[in-house]
């Protein structure tokens, strides 16, 4: 990949990864055929499809559509080999308990952006009556004879995954469940709307207090996955880095509110429509501080891309990562490209430099990998990004989309690298 030209043009984002994965898990609760559209073609979706198939569901895929027939489930186990590949596989815990009354799900263990515990999932489900045991690296969970019972749960932290697992279990529980301090990410709203369309009764969608009245069963539905705000934000950063104008379409611009505000503060001109945003920059980038927080705060999934922007901004900035421990792994790789970054605990002090220089670097995780590709767009000379299987987890046709905007980027055949020829 070679740094240089301004990217210009229009690019459409796919359906949201973090929504599609949970909608797939939720379809296990429906004894019939669910049709999901706008499903991204990314490797995380492949893994979740494999999880569903192992549980006995039939999954048929055509283009961006998934038909999931969960009329009969034949297993209640999400095996370690799949959970280790993708932590979001733990999203089947709530649905399996609601549908079958029993689940055996591998503990995810550590991952490259921190230990990512699931204690809040466990505690919340226990409050609904689930009996849990940890054995041989697995959570063995069982619903008592009396079934799942609605209850009041206050989360210690608005965890996305815990909110979703509880929401899904509560939908088929007896009585009322109230989830306080619930996470409010738009993808949780998408999941809740899907469940409501299938017959669930959910109030407070998009707020931090979600109330669920349990129902007997859910009915098959068709649902379109919302647009991926993080993919959108990534392409907007590509426009901001190179100057643009770049127009990104296919997502709710209100879901990126704070990201757009930060881009404006950094000196970008933005044209904002309901489902599209155009970014353009003619002057220098100005440094601004960033701290990640649960939605509607600044998304941790945009932190790495903004570090790439701040690396060439005028002045110094502090990035504070409040959601995940250890999410600055890629910063060392960015420093290999000439960025001036000092990490102190969960703070990164980024001093803008005049220019980055192309280098061989390695993706450490999904968003970190994408950020290195973005940095390569403006680095002098060639950048080769390795371990791009991380990027394939969450970005569909990333190289093709960047190329369509004029980037000099290519994918090495049969090698997990992005590179380019100057
Ligand atoms: C989801 C998203 C991820 C995003 C994150 C935060 C998916 C597939 N992934 O991840 O892209 O970056 O939300 O917006 O949707 N925690 C605990 N105990 C728990 C649960 C979480 O301590 O039981 C901690 C985690 O270790 C982490 C923080 O809470 O430090 C946030 O985690 P959570 O909101 O649950 O994120 P995920 O659902 O894993």
Outline the structure in words.
The protein is α/β, with parallel strands linked by helices. 31% of the residues lie in helices and 23% in strands. The protein contains 14 helices and 24 strands. It has helices at 17-26, 43-54, 80-85, 93-100, 119-127, 160-171, 186-197, 229-242, 257-265, 303-310, 331-336, 366-378, 389-392, 398-404, and strands spanning 9-12, 33-37, 58-62, 65-69, 77-78, 102-106, 131-135, 138-142, 152-154, 176-180, 201-203, 209-213, 222-224, 246-249, 269-272, 276-280, 290-291, 316-320, 340-344, 347-351, 360-362, 384-386, 410-411, 417-419. A 4-stranded mixed β-sheet has the order 1-14-16-15, with helices on one face. A hairpin with a 2-residue loop joins strand 3 and strand 4 (65-69). Helix 1 packs parallel to helix 7. It is elongated. The N and C termini lie close together (8 Å). The model has no long low-confidence stretch (mean pLDDT 95). Bound molecules: uridine-diphosphate-N-acetylglucosamine. Uridine-diphosphate-N-acetylglucosamine is lined by residues 18, 21, 88, 114, 116-121, 157, 159-162, 183, 185, 300-301, 323-324.
């Amino acid at each position: 990949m070679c740094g240089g030209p301004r990217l210009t043009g229009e690019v459409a984002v796919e359906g949201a990864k973090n929504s599609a994965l949970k909608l797939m898990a939720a379809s296990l609760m429906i004894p019939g055929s669910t049709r999901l559209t706008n499903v991204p073609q990314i490797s995380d979706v492949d893994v979740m499809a494999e999880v569903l198939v192992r549980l006995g569901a039939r999954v048929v895929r055509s283009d961006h559509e998934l038909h999931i027939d969960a009329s009969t489930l034949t297993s209640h186990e999400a095996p370690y080999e799949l959970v280790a590949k993708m932590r979001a596989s733990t999203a089947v815990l709530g649905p399996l308990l609601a549908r079958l009354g029993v689940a055996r799900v591998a503990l995810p263990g550590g991952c490259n952006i921190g230990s990512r515990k699931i204690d809040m999932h466990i505690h919340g489900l226990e409050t609904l009556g689930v009996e849990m045991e940890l054995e041989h690296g697995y959570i063995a969970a069982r619903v008592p004879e009396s079934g799942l019972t609605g209850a009041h749960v206050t989360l210690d932290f608005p965890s996305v995954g815990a909110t979703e697992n509880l929401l899904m279990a509560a939908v088929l529980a007896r009585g009322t469940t109230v989830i306080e301090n619930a996470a409010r990410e738009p993808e949780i709203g998408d999941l809740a709307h899907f469940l409501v369309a299938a017959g669930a009764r959910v109030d407070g969608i998009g707020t931090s207090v979600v109330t669920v009245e349990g129902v007997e069963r859910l009915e098959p539905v068709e649902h379109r996955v919302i647009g991926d705000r993080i993919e959108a934000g990534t392409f907007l950063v590509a426009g901001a880095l190179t100057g643009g104008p770049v127009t990104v379409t296919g997502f709710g611009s209100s879901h990126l509110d704070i990201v757009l505000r930060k881009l404006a503060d950094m000196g970008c001109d933005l044209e904002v429509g309901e489902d599209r945003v155009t970014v353009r920059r003619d002057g220098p980038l100005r440094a601004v501080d960033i701290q990640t927080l649960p939605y509607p705060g600044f998304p941790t999934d945009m932190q790495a891309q903004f570090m790439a922007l701040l690396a060439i901004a005028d002045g110094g900035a502090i990035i504070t990562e409040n959601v995940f421990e250890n999410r600055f792994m890629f910063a060392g790789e960015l420093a290999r490209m000439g960025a001036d970054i000092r990490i102190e605990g969960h703070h990164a002090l980024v001093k803008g430099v005049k220019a980055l220089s192309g280098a061989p670097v390695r993706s450490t995780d999904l968003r970190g990998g994408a950020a290195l590709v973005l940095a390569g767009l403006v680095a002098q000379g060639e950048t080769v990004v390795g371990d791009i299987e991380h990027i394939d987890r969450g970005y569909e046709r990333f190289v093709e989309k960047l190329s369509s905007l004029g980037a000099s980027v290519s994918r090495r055949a049969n090698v997990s690298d992005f590179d380019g020829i100057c």
